[in-house]
# Entry
Amino acid sequence: MIKDRFLRALRCQPVDCTPIWMMRQAGRFLPEYRATRARAGDFLTLCKTPELACEVTLQPVQRFPLDAAIIFSDILTIPDAMGLGLTLNEGEGPRFQHPVRHEKDVQRLFVPDPESELRYVTDAIRLVKTALQGRIPLIGFSGSPWTLATYMVEGRGSRDFRIIKTMLYDRPELLQQMLSIVSEAVITYLKAQAAAGVQAMMVFDTWGGVLSHQAFLDFSLQYMHRIVTAVKATYPEIPLILFTKGGGQWLPALADTGCDALGLDWTCSLAKARQLTANKVALQGNLDPAALYASAETIRKQVAAVLADFGPGPGHVFNLGHGVNPDTDPERVAVLIDAVHEQSRQSK
Amino acid sequence: MIKDRFLRALRCQPVDCTPIWMMRQAGRFLPEYRATRARAGDFLTLCKTPELACEVTLQPVQRFPLDAAIIFSDILTIPDAMGLGLTLNEGEGPRFQHPVRHEKDVQRLFVPDPESELRYVTDAIRLVKTALQGRIPLIGFSGSPWTLATYMVEGRGSRDFRIIKTMLYDRPELLQQMLSIVSEAVITYLKAQAAAGVQAMMVFDTWGGVLSHQAFLDFSLQYMHRIVTAVKATYPEIPLILFTKGGGQWLPALADTGCDALGLDWTCSLAKARQLTANKVALQGNLDPAALYASAETIRKQVAAVLADFGPGPGHVFNLGHGVNPDTDPERVAVLIDAVHEQSRQSK
# Structure
C-alpha cells in the first residue's frame, strides 16, 4: 500500500489532508535560489550541473512542508539536446540559434539519448532521490510536443505564434512530422526519468491554449495521448499528470488520454471539472498565483474557496493554477501551505 | 421586417448567406488607415476628430463587402473622459497619468456625460450614419467594466494584473464600488451611441479571461449583466453582443445575461457553444486571426471548417476570434470575406 499523501491523492485514494506542491516552487521567489543561481553564473549552467540542480530542487522542500519535490530543469532541454543552439539570457527569454522551419530542418531532428545528451537531468534525479531518502516523492516532467515545437519553430517565445501557426495551417503534415519526432523524444526522456527514480510525471502544455479547438486536438492532444500510452505501457504504476494552460474547455478529452491526473489553471471550476471528467482522473490546482499577493487572511479564505470548490472526496492535489510569480513573498507561501494542510485536515 | 443580413443573424433569423465583419477591421492592417493615422499625428487625435474617425470607420467597408461597420474608437475613451490622463504613445501602449488605486481615487470617479465629454464619439457615429445611408448597419461598442478597470488601476497594460488582483483579493468592496461607477458610465455611453444611431452594440471583455471562475462571475459578469439589463430596457430592439476573450468556459452564464449574441474566440467550438447556450443567443466568430497568414486555399478550407462547426440553421455572424493582426495582408482578408459569403450561400 502506498502511504504517501501526494501519490495517494493522484490515485484518488483517501488522504489525511490535501497534499500541496507549487509549479516553479524551485525558483526565483526564493532568495536561496537566487543565491545559487548567481553562483552558477547562468541559468543553463544551473540546469546542466546536477549538484546545483539538486540543490535548488531541495530548497523549497527544506523551507516549507511541501508534499512533493519537482526536479529543477527547463522544458527546453530536449530541443537543446537536439542541437538547436539554446541560449537563455537574462531579460530576453529563450532563443534558438537554429529554429526548425523547413523540411531540411525537420529531417535533421533526432531523438536524443537521455543517458548521454540529457544525462545531467537523470544524474540530478538520482542525487535528489538520495538526498530525499523517500521523505516525499519526486516529480519528473517534460514540455508537451506542441509547446516545445512553438519554441523550436519560432526560435524564441512568441505572443502571436505567427510562424508556427502559418506552418500549422499551410504545412500541417510537416508540423506533424516534427511533432512525432518530438513526441518520441519526450517518451524516451520521461522513461529515462522514471528509470532514474521519479515517482510521478507531468507534461506541461503551456501553449496548448493558443490553439483553436480542432487544432488543439490535432496538434497537441494527439501527441500527449501518444506519450501517455507509451509511458504508461512501460511504467503503469507511475502517475502521469497533463496540464494544458487555458485548456479548461478540453478537460474531457484530456481525461480520456489515460493519464492519472489533470492540472487546472485558475479559470476552471474544480467542481465543474470533476463533473466533466466523471472522477476518471485526479485534479491538481488551482489557486490564482496572484492571490499570493494578498494578505494572509485573504489567502486563507481563498484556500477555503478552492477546497470547497473541489468538495468532499479524494483525488485533489492542491497547487497554483500556474507557476508561482517571482515577486511572491515566501512568507505568503508558508501561509498557503499551512492553510491547505490545516483546513483540509479539519474537513476529512 | 428587418432585411439586413447582419441584424437578422443577430436575431437568429434566416439569412441569404452568413454575414461577416472583423474585429479591428478599421485598423493598422489597411494602408489607407495608416495614411489617415499619419495625417492625424497621433492615435488620440484620430479618435477625437469625428471626421477622421468617420473616415477610418468607412475605409474597410469601402474596400471589402463587409456586412457591418464598427465605429472607430478606443475602449479607453471612458476612463479618459473621467480625467485619468490617457496617453497612447506608439510602441508603449496606453498609460494613465492618474491610476485609480485608493479610496480617494475611487471617490473622485464620475459618470461622464457622453454628449459633452464623449461628444466626439456620438458625432462620429452621426457622420458615419449619414455616409452609410443605411447600406450596412453600424456597430457601437464599449469595453467591459472589468476590462476598463484593469487599465484604470494598473495605469497601463499588464501581463500579471498584480495591482488590480491584489485589490480584488484584499479590497473587493472598493473594486466593486469602482466597477459600479464604471458600469454606470458604460450604460450611459452605450445609450448615447444608440441615440446617435448605432444599430448593434458590443461589449469587449478583453481581460475577463484572466480571472478565476468565481472572480469572473463577481467582478466581470455581474457588471456586464447590469449593462445588458439597463441598455435593453431602453433599447430592446438593438442587439447587444458580449465578448469575453478566453471565456469559453462561461458561455452559459454569459448567455443568461439577456444579451442577444456572444462573441467567441477561436479556442471554442461553435457546435459545442450552440449546445451550451441552447440556441438562446446568436454566436459571433471565430476564425483564428493567424489563419489569415496562410494561403488563399488554406483560408477557404478554414472558413469551411468554421461554417461546418456552426452547422445548419440561423444565428451565426462570421468574425475572427480576436482583432485582425496589423501585419495581415489585405488580399487575404478579401479571400476570407468572399469565402464566407460564397460557401454559406451554397449551403443555405
